[in-house]
Amino acid sequence: MEQGPEDDRNLVAAVMARRPGAFEHLVTRYQKLVWHLVHRIVQHPEDTRELAQEVFLQVHRRLHQFRFESALGTWIGRIAFSVASRHMQRKRLPMVEPDEDGVSPAERVEDGFDLAASVADAELMRHLHAAIDALPPLQRTLVTLYHVDELGIAEVARITDLPEGTVKNYLFRARQRLRRHLESLEACPS
After folding, report:
1. Which CATH topology does 122-187 take?
2. Residue limits of CATH 1.10.10.10 in the chain
3. Which of 74, 65, 41, 34 lies closest to 161, judged by CA?
4. Where in the chain is the domain with CATH 1.10.1740.10?
5. Does residue 127 or residue 138 have the better pLDDT?
6. Residues 6+ apart with CB under 8 A from 174
7. Residue 183: per-residue pLDDT
8. Residues in domain RNA polymerase sigma factor 70 region 4 type (predicted)?
Protein backbone atom coordinates (compact mmCIF):
# COMPACT_ATOMS: atom_id res chain seq x y z
CA MET A 1 0.00 0.00 0.00
CA GLU A 2 1.36 3.40 -1.06
CA GLN A 3 1.97 5.80 1.79
CA GLY A 4 1.50 9.52 1.27
CA PRO A 5 3.72 12.43 2.31
CA GLU A 6 1.48 13.19 5.30
CA ASP A 7 1.83 9.57 6.51
CA ASP A 8 5.61 9.94 6.18
CA ARG A 9 5.59 13.21 8.14
CA ASN A 10 3.46 11.72 10.91
CA LEU A 11 5.61 8.61 11.16
CA VAL A 12 8.87 10.57 11.23
CA ALA A 13 7.44 12.95 13.85
CA ALA A 14 6.34 10.00 15.99
CA VAL A 15 9.76 8.36 15.78
CA MET A 16 11.54 11.65 16.52
CA ALA A 17 9.24 12.18 19.53
CA ARG A 18 10.19 8.66 20.69
CA ARG A 19 6.58 7.51 20.80
CA PRO A 20 6.37 3.87 21.87
CA GLY A 21 6.12 1.54 18.87
CA ALA A 22 6.75 4.27 16.28
CA PHE A 23 10.12 3.00 15.07
CA GLU A 24 8.81 -0.58 15.05
CA HIS A 25 5.97 0.65 12.83
CA LEU A 26 8.52 2.25 10.48
CA VAL A 27 10.47 -1.02 10.31
CA THR A 28 7.31 -3.01 9.64
CA ARG A 29 6.26 -0.63 6.88
CA TYR A 30 9.60 -0.70 5.05
CA GLN A 31 11.13 -4.08 5.89
CA LYS A 32 9.94 -5.69 2.64
CA LEU A 33 11.53 -2.92 0.54
CA VAL A 34 14.79 -3.16 2.49
CA TRP A 35 14.85 -6.95 2.29
CA HIS A 36 14.20 -6.93 -1.48
CA LEU A 37 16.89 -4.38 -2.18
CA VAL A 38 19.56 -5.91 0.00
CA HIS A 39 18.84 -9.53 -0.88
CA ARG A 40 18.78 -8.87 -4.62
CA ILE A 41 22.26 -7.42 -4.34
CA VAL A 42 23.98 -9.79 -1.88
CA GLN A 43 21.91 -12.98 -2.41
CA HIS A 44 22.90 -14.48 0.92
CA PRO A 45 20.17 -14.72 3.59
CA GLU A 46 22.47 -14.32 6.58
CA ASP A 47 24.23 -11.30 5.06
CA THR A 48 20.84 -9.90 4.08
CA ARG A 49 19.59 -10.13 7.68
CA GLU A 50 22.69 -8.41 9.05
CA LEU A 51 22.68 -5.72 6.39
CA ALA A 52 18.93 -5.06 6.80
CA GLN A 53 19.57 -4.49 10.50
CA GLU A 54 22.39 -2.13 9.58
CA VAL A 55 20.03 -0.25 7.24
CA PHE A 56 17.46 0.31 9.98
CA LEU A 57 20.18 1.26 12.44
CA GLN A 58 21.34 3.93 9.98
CA VAL A 59 17.75 5.04 9.40
CA HIS A 60 17.32 5.46 13.14
CA ARG A 61 20.58 7.39 13.49
CA ARG A 62 19.97 9.62 10.47
CA LEU A 63 16.20 10.13 10.55
CA HIS A 64 16.70 13.68 11.84
CA GLN A 65 18.43 14.40 8.50
CA PHE A 66 15.41 13.37 6.40
CA ARG A 67 14.10 16.53 4.70
CA PHE A 68 11.01 15.18 2.88
CA GLU A 69 12.57 15.94 -0.52
CA SER A 70 11.48 12.45 -1.56
CA ALA A 71 9.21 9.77 -0.16
CA LEU A 72 10.42 8.17 3.06
CA GLY A 73 10.54 4.80 1.27
CA THR A 74 12.82 6.26 -1.41
CA TRP A 75 15.16 7.65 1.24
CA ILE A 76 15.23 4.33 3.11
CA GLY A 77 15.70 2.49 -0.18
CA ARG A 78 18.72 4.66 -0.94
CA ILE A 79 20.25 3.79 2.41
CA ALA A 80 19.59 0.08 1.76
CA PHE A 81 21.15 0.27 -1.69
CA SER A 82 24.17 2.09 -0.29
CA VAL A 83 24.69 -0.39 2.57
CA ALA A 84 24.43 -3.38 0.21
CA SER A 85 26.70 -1.76 -2.39
CA ARG A 86 29.38 -1.05 0.23
CA HIS A 87 29.11 -4.67 1.38
CA MET A 88 29.76 -5.83 -2.19
CA GLN A 89 32.74 -3.46 -2.46
CA ARG A 90 34.22 -4.71 0.83
CA LYS A 91 33.91 -8.28 -0.45
CA ARG A 92 35.34 -7.17 -3.80
CA LEU A 93 32.30 -8.52 -5.65
CA PRO A 94 31.28 -6.72 -8.86
CA MET A 95 27.92 -4.98 -9.07
CA VAL A 96 27.88 -4.99 -12.87
CA GLU A 97 29.55 -7.05 -15.52
CA PRO A 98 31.57 -5.47 -18.30
CA ASP A 99 29.99 -4.79 -21.68
CA GLU A 100 30.52 -7.84 -23.80
CA ASP A 101 28.97 -6.53 -26.97
CA GLY A 102 29.83 -2.84 -26.94
CA VAL A 103 26.21 -1.93 -27.68
CA SER A 104 25.43 1.72 -27.02
CA PRO A 105 23.08 2.36 -24.08
CA ALA A 106 19.43 1.77 -24.85
CA GLU A 107 17.38 4.77 -23.90
CA ARG A 108 14.17 2.84 -23.46
CA VAL A 109 12.94 -0.03 -21.34
CA GLU A 110 10.20 -1.14 -23.69
CA ASP A 111 11.52 -3.53 -26.30
CA GLY A 112 8.34 -5.30 -27.36
CA PHE A 113 8.98 -8.31 -25.14
CA ASP A 114 5.89 -9.26 -23.10
CA LEU A 115 7.42 -10.58 -19.89
CA ALA A 116 4.08 -11.36 -18.24
CA ALA A 117 2.82 -13.42 -21.18
CA SER A 118 6.10 -15.32 -21.37
CA VAL A 119 5.86 -16.54 -17.80
CA ALA A 120 2.22 -17.58 -17.71
CA ASP A 121 3.33 -21.15 -17.22
CA ALA A 122 4.47 -22.04 -13.67
CA GLU A 123 7.52 -23.93 -14.96
CA LEU A 124 8.62 -20.91 -16.93
CA MET A 125 8.08 -18.78 -13.82
CA ARG A 126 10.46 -21.01 -11.89
CA HIS A 127 13.04 -20.68 -14.67
CA LEU A 128 12.51 -16.94 -14.80
CA HIS A 129 13.20 -16.58 -11.07
CA ALA A 130 16.37 -18.63 -11.47
CA ALA A 131 17.40 -16.44 -14.43
CA ILE A 132 16.75 -13.26 -12.42
CA ASP A 133 18.83 -14.66 -9.55
CA ALA A 134 21.66 -15.31 -12.04
CA LEU A 135 21.73 -11.68 -13.24
CA PRO A 136 24.52 -9.43 -11.96
CA PRO A 137 23.55 -7.80 -8.64
CA LEU A 138 22.70 -4.38 -10.05
CA GLN A 139 20.53 -5.75 -12.87
CA ARG A 140 18.83 -8.14 -10.42
CA THR A 141 18.05 -5.23 -8.11
CA LEU A 142 16.74 -2.98 -10.86
CA VAL A 143 14.52 -5.72 -12.30
CA THR A 144 13.09 -6.33 -8.83
CA LEU A 145 12.44 -2.65 -8.13
CA TYR A 146 10.91 -1.98 -11.54
CA HIS A 147 9.00 -5.18 -12.34
CA VAL A 148 8.28 -6.71 -8.93
CA ASP A 149 7.95 -3.66 -6.67
CA GLU A 150 6.51 -1.69 -9.64
CA LEU A 151 8.47 1.49 -8.97
CA GLY A 152 8.87 4.00 -11.78
CA ILE A 153 12.18 4.69 -13.51
CA ALA A 154 12.56 8.04 -11.69
CA GLU A 155 12.12 6.47 -8.26
CA VAL A 156 14.46 3.57 -9.08
CA ALA A 157 17.03 6.16 -10.20
CA ARG A 158 16.65 8.09 -6.93
CA ILE A 159 17.01 4.92 -4.85
CA THR A 160 20.10 3.71 -6.69
CA ASP A 161 21.54 7.19 -7.30
CA LEU A 162 21.94 6.31 -10.97
CA PRO A 163 20.92 8.48 -13.93
CA GLU A 164 17.57 7.48 -15.42
CA GLY A 165 19.25 6.62 -18.73
CA THR A 166 21.59 4.22 -16.93
CA VAL A 167 18.65 2.56 -15.15
CA LYS A 168 16.88 2.16 -18.50
CA ASN A 169 20.04 0.74 -20.06
CA TYR A 170 20.55 -1.87 -17.34
CA LEU A 171 16.86 -2.80 -17.40
CA PHE A 172 17.01 -3.17 -21.19
CA ARG A 173 20.07 -5.42 -20.95
CA ALA A 174 18.55 -7.48 -18.15
CA ARG A 175 15.36 -7.97 -20.15
CA GLN A 176 17.44 -9.05 -23.17
CA ARG A 177 19.21 -11.66 -21.04
CA LEU A 178 15.95 -12.87 -19.57
CA ARG A 179 14.39 -13.07 -23.03
CA ARG A 180 17.32 -15.07 -24.39
CA HIS A 181 17.07 -17.42 -21.42
CA LEU A 182 13.32 -17.95 -21.87
CA GLU A 183 13.69 -18.38 -25.64
CA SER A 184 16.39 -21.01 -25.09
CA LEU A 185 13.96 -22.91 -22.85
CA GLU A 186 11.29 -22.81 -25.54
CA ALA A 187 13.78 -24.05 -28.14
CA CYS A 188 14.78 -26.98 -25.93
CA PRO A 189 11.58 -28.50 -24.52
CA SER A 190 12.12 -30.94 -21.67
Report:
1. Arc Repressor Mutant, subunit A (1.10.10)
2. 122-187
3. 74
4. 5-91
5. 138
6. 135, 139, 140, 142, 143
7. 79
8. 128-178
Residue 121 has pLDDT above 80, yes or no: no
Name the least confident of 37-46, 110-119, 175-184.
110-119
2.40.50.100, 1.20.200.10, 1.10.1740.10, 3.20.20.60: which CATH number matches 5-91? 1.10.1740.10
**Pseudo-torsion of CA 98, 101, 102, 103, nearest 10°?**
-120
